[in-house]
Amino acid sequence: MNQEFTASLKSVETENILDLYFYRPIGYQIARLLRHTSVTPNMVTVLSIFVGAGTGFMFYFDNISYNIIGILLLMLANIMDCVDGQLARLTGIKSKIGRILDGIAGEIWFLMIYLGLALRLTYTYGTAWFFLPALLSGLSHILQANITDYYKTFHLYIESKEKGAEFQKKDQIKSQQQMENGFMKFLYTIYVIYTGIQEKFTPQLQQLIDSLHLQYGDDFPQDFRLNFRKKSSRLMKQCIDFLTFNGRTIVLFIVVLSGYVWLYFVYEIIVLNCILFIAIRKHEKICQEIYNQIS
User: Fold this and answer.
1) Rounded to 5 degrees, what are φ and ψ at 67?
2) Residue of 267, 252, 243, 265 whose CA lies nearest to 71
3) Structurally, how many domains does the chain consist of?
4) Is the separation of the CB atoms in 249 and 64 below 8 Å?
5) DSSP secondary structure string, the chain?
6) Which of 98-107, 122-131, 208-217, 267-276 comes out lowest in average pLDDT?
7) CATH number of the domain residue 271 falls in
8) pTM of the shown model
9) Taking the CA atoms of the chain, what radius of gyration do you get in angstroms?
């Protein structure tokens, strides 16, 4: 694997197969073309938000051609989402707002998709009740993406302090928020809420982090790092990857092309939430076991 390509990734360990062999290689080539231009990672992120949001409009139509365009738009938005991170790592151009924008981009894409599907079903069946499962899907998606991102960021933090530099506790983010003004303060407020939810659902993980910092500071033992990464990587393949962009869009694309779009709400609300519940239980068990070993 190309060394520069590998350097453009957060970590090979946290990438799933489709990202590693499809989306990321394309993103890398585009990032290489852009790194000597005036285009910044944040510009790419903002553009990806508009491209991905267009998918919801295309999915509103019960028309196979429009739906295929919607699928292509969402795939393009995800490639752009890869580009912004890879461009940031290749150029060293990173910012606070970039981290926050990157975190909410995917949620905006899917909220627009759920809105488009709800409008389509309302038009087809003549009832606005479909906005209820659309709302529940949106809330479920935000929670799933939130926890998934937290687990992957923590994995990076355990892998190395540099790779996991974005991993922060809510109190750290609150301190940064107090130094900001205007729109940045608003974004940090969202980030504080986002991180607060992550910590609320991961009590054993919080206990493990506090214990590690108390005993070792940021210099964690190598055997602990290897042990946790092994168990965390296995859990990603078993559960967590189903909750990522690739895990949900494969089903989304099949459902949209079949015409039975209401099935996606069932998948999002029931199937993916069950997987989230299992993933949280398994991850918390891992953290509890390792905490008992180091205490």
Assistant:
1) -65, -40
2) 252
3) 1
4) no
5) --HHHHHTSS-GGG--HHIIIIIHHHHHHHHHHHTTSS--HHHHHHHHHHHHHHHHHHHHS--HHHHHHHHHHHHHHHHHHHHHHHHHHHH----HHHHHHHHHHHHHHHHHHHHHHHHHHHHHHS-GGGHHHHHHHHHHHHHHHHHHHHHHHHHHHHH-TTTTTT---HHHHHHHHTT--HHHHHHHHHHHHHHHHHHHT-HHHHHHHHHHHHHHTT---HHHHHHHHHHHHHHHHHTGGGGSHHHHHHHHHHHHHHT-THHHHHIIIIIIHHHHHHHHHHHHHHHHHHHHHH-
6) 98-107
7) 1.20.120.1760
8) 0.90
9) 20
pLDDT band for position 286 (cuts 50, 70, 90): very high
Both tokens of 115, joined, read: 């809105």
Give the per-residue pLDDT at 255.
Answer: 96
Q: Which residues, including other chains, have CB under 8 Å from residue 223's CB and lie 6 or more apart?
A: none
- How far apart CA 252 and CA 109 sit, in angstroms, is 13
Q: What is the pLDDT of residues 162-221, one digit of tens each?
A: 777 778 888 887 887 777 777 777 777 888 888 899 999 999 999 999 999 999 887 888
**What pLDDT is recorded for position 268?**
97
Domain limits for position 90: 3-294
Taking alpha carbons only, the member of 250, 44, 249, 240 closest to residue 150 is 240
